[in-house]
């Protein structure tokens, strides 16, 4: 299981890096533990990464594509701290 996930949402224009164990992430399933828009056009996703550095690179790329806000790290799990 990947230790980090990047969450992106094109409607809310947000991108966040989470630890897999974070309550907001739950190993890429999210707080609701399911995709709330399953079967519809996907406007968000959880992408797994083996390192924080790899997750940060993807988060920065996604943020540029979406015009997302500057904050990239989750405030709950603080993935940038070891």
Describe the SSE topology.
Blueprint: E1 4-9, E2 14-19, E3 44-49, H1 52-66
Antiparallel strand pairs: 1-2, 1-3
Describe the structure.
There is one protein chain. The longest helix has 15 residues, at 52-66. 23% of the residues are buried. The protein has one domain (4-66). By secondary structure, the protein is of the alpha+beta class. A three-stranded antiparallel beta sheet has the order 2-1-3, covered by helices on one side. It has one helix at 52-66, and strands at residues 4-9, 14-19, 44-49. A hairpin with a 4-residue loop joins strand 1 (4-9) and strand 2 (14-19). The model has no long low-confidence stretch (mean pLDDT 85).
Give me the number of helical elements: 1
Helical residues, percent:
10-25%
Biggest beta sheet attributes: 3 strands, antiparallel
Order of helices and strands: EEEH
Features:
alpha+beta; three-stranded antiparallel β-sheet
Short description:
The chain is of the alpha+beta class. The protein is built from one helix and three strands, in the order E-E-E-H. It has one domain.
